[in-house]
Amino acid sequence: MKTWSEVAEVQPLASKIITNSIRKDRISHAYLLQGERGTGKEAIALLLAKRLFCDINKTSVEPCHECNACKRITSGNHPDVHWIEPEGQSIKIEQIKNLQKEFTYSGLESSQKVYVIQGADTLTLNAANRILKFLEEPSKQTTAIMLTENSQSIISTIRSRCQVVDLQPLNPASFQKQLVEKGMTQDNAALMSALTNNFDDAFTWSGDDWFATARKIVVQLVEMFSTNKEDIFLYIHNYWVTHFKERSGQEQGLDLLLLAFKDILYYHIGNKDTMVFFNPQDELLGKSAMTFSQEKLVFILNAILQAKRKVKQNVHPTLVIEQLTLQIQR
Question: What sort of enzyme, by top EC class, is this (predicted)?
Answer without folding.
Answer: transferase
